[in-house]
Amino acid sequence: DPDALPYAELHAHSSFSFLDGASSPEELVEEAERLGLSALALVDHDTFAGLVHFAEAAESSSVATIFGAELSLGLSGPQNGEPDPEGEHLVVLARGPEGYHRLSRAMTEANLRGGEKGRPVYDLEELAAAAEGQWAVLTGCRKGAVRRALEEGGPDAAGHALDELVALFGRDAVHVELIDHGDPLDTDRNDALAALASARGLPVLATGNVHYATPDRRHLAAAVAAVRARRSLDELDGWLPATGGAHLRSGREMRERFARYPGAIEHGLELAAELAFPLKRAKPALPKE
After folding, report:
1. pTM for this prediction
2. Rounded to an integer, what distance in angstroms lies between the CA atom of residue 78 and that of residue 88?
3. How many angstroms separate the CA atoms of 223 and 229, rounded?
């Protein structure tokens, strides 16, 4: 699209986020290409299982690929059957091959330590030691430590959680994530987060916290959530997002949504340029079937 405004989506889940994402990596790449996005980060829960599909789909597209994961901290057991799975989430983006290997090792160790499928066990200080500057850390969704502290204890508690992340991973690694799915409270949350970031000289970063490629997949996403929770859609209704806004959006739409947070889109583009994985090989694109 010649009118596309540049935007990098740095928080997207595929169907490899078991019973959470509702689109395949291929569908996400295809829609990102259609929207004219410059980069896409795949951050499935505790796994790199979708990355081969992601990388292969991106080879014939103009979308740069970023590899990451959303780590589930503090699980007491596997989360299937839970309407609102427990645990705190940490979004980690790998800086190229070195960051990828470190993140892969950390997830493997956590899954082994958990002793049962679906229950990785991480140690936050070990993760920080493993990162050594090779990861970018996003404050994440409502289950991230900072957003959760904001909901439960207000800005002071959120500031404390943010300071802890900076102490662990370093000032250069931490990015304060702003998300707007059209929930009436999203702007208040984002204003509070932007103020905390500003007070600490940390960058803000706009993401779509994407769980499906296109708006029409929201119904599949709801069905998938019901399967995960082992409940009917009616029983699950109170736990489902009210807006169905977790889809990919164009750069133009994201810029309009986040206009009140200067730099939030630009910072994402700068970070994407640093993190993008050198996957494009010098070979002709295969003809489309």
Report:
1. 0.87
2. 14
3. 10
